[in-house]
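Subject: mismatched residue count in predicted assembly?

I count 631 residues in my input, but I want to confirm that the predicted structure covers every chain. Input:
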Amino acid sequence: MKEKSKRVIPGLGLSLGVTITMLSVIVIIPLASLAVFTGRLSFGEFIDVITNKRVLASFEVSFVTAFIASLINAVMGVVLAWVLVRYDFPGRRIIDGMIELPFALPTAVAGISLTALTSDKGWIGRLFDRVGIKIAYTRIGITFALVFVGIPFVVRTVQPVLEKLDGTYEEAAGVMGASRAVIFRRIIFPEIRPAVFTGFGLALGRCIGEYGSVVFIAGNQPYNTEITPLIIMAKLQEYDYGSASAIALIMLIFSFTLLFAVNMIQVRNSKILKGGR
Amino acid sequence: MKKNLYKIAAAVITPVIAASFLSSCGATASAATNSDTGEKNEKAEKVTLTNVSYDPTRELYAAYNEAFAKHYKEKTGKDIEITQSHGGSGKQALEVANGLEADVVTLALEYDVKEVQKAGLIQEGWLSEFPNDSAPYTSTIVFLVRKGNPKNIHDWDDLIRDDIGIITPNSKTSGGARWNYLAAWAYAQKLYNNDEEQVKDFIKKLFGNVLVLDSGARGATTTFVENGQGDVLLAWENEAYLSLKDAPDEYEIVTPSISILAQPSVAVVDEVVDERGTREAAEEYLNYLYSDEAQRIEGNNYYRPTNPDILKEFGDVFDLNINLVTINDFGGWDEAFAKHFADGGLFDQIYEKE
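Triage response: the counts match. Full output below for your records.
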């Protein structure tokens, strides 16, 4: 009794109730229906669907490009966040606002404009074409689109942490003769690492399932640039709910495991940071 | 302890209350729409119809709805308002099957309308409800090439040359693109006298030349027109003419010797019109698509009118000598679908790796 009354925020019951309702209506029920639809297939059919060579190839395309894009985002996102927090220059606010554009822009619009830019007739694509690199309609193009889609996740998770970072530690380290690289590696990076991981995880989760922007730039060649969400769309077009949800389920399990792993790393990190075990 | 109990109770009860609130909202909402339609029926002044169609018919139905409203007013004295919905044909069919309220569907494929029928919304026999297999206008698959036809493309067998890059939507994700594949198949079948192995080889080579396999017809047009990819776009005739109209100096249309008669199907959604009391208007709406006026509108929008006399009026637009096979040459949609487009079907086999 005594222990309970100490709680600062009242209304735990109510808020927990709201949480459970929202969670079940928005997340759990739709996910459960995915499992139900998959249940229409027998186990053998399920295995056949998900081990189809073309489906396996699409998993490879989707996961590899999403992973590379998220890695690029993790690095570039930190750089962007750093510049936005640490430097004051004209137009900073505009650039700061532009970071969120990929959130706001309908993904199909993004896909079409990125394709126009990076095809061998486009502004950017033309330059790369001269040195023999094709961007649009290759895996590079897919990665390019995913970098665009995922960048806000990293910037927006790292930015607030950087803003709160106490500059005195850096100054102290500087006074004690640490080089800039050492300061970054030993002082700044450990602080922002959890945020980078979270941003990476969020971007990865988003990129794996991304459809709208990628279909236009991918070229959709089977085995080469065909992403998993496109295969799911094709199954739906055939009114084949069972196979579509089977593939979706596998993607979901993959993404969930990845996100879970990222979270675990983060939990461990924050424990170390707090000095506990 | 007591406090604890309250909390647990609250945690359990809140979702229940929320759920009942949500469902009661739904109930009042549907009650409201019911009284709404009741009122409309009593007044019977303004009729509303929803036409769920597919992407490339946007311009056609914008023009037709205007003409039809005028005709309907003259005939019955009532005003009519038509709401259009456009999207990928298969997606649109799914939406209607899942409950999007449509009085009529005007889709790209008989197969898509059948999906709505399977959901129990359209009665069997709709295919013969209107003339010409319920297809008031038709189209076919043609080639759009760059001005001057630099790669010298004249027929399907030019497309399997090594130096040709083809742009076509994916027959798996775009219902309309199934016609593209079937048209190529029909040509190869004639060329090789029905020797299926050779036909398969031909199709394999053809799709091996495909540079970008877009998910939809408009996407493929963008790839070919805006991004300048490929030498030839396999397109619906009406889409090809639209691109040509936009940029007459950049493209040419090549009509192959054999192609397929694409028959976009129309149907009244029985369940919906009976509930809303709009059957008479919906049937008139589809029937009028066969009138001389509407047939000319269709021709002007580059669909081939089914009325042979009016088709002749457009003889300078369309190549009327083209040899058109129909879906019945493939044994009807069900058979064609099972053989070619089902999982592991011939279309999948093109891309199978040995």
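Chain A has a mean pLDDT of 88. Marking this ticket as 'not a bug'.
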